[in-house]
Specification:
Largest sheet: 4 strands, mixed
Radius of gyration: 11 Å
Strand order of the largest sheet: 1-2-3-4
Distance between the termini: 13 Å
Number of helices: 1
Shape: globular
Amino acid sequence: MLYSQTARCARWGAEKGARRVSGLTRSEREAVRNGEEVRFKGCPEVDGTTERRIIFAGGRFFARMPKE
């Protein structure tokens, strides 16, 4: 599992995640596309965590709650 130091979200959505994630490095983008788990911290606290995992869907990167 990788932790991104550069990922950020411009605005937060209602689904315990963000609309879009930006600021990923090239190696982080490749890792997400290859199915590796990449997370970042500093998000609004939900269910006791400020951490989100990054997913790749529809050609874009999104943040979602971490799987337990």
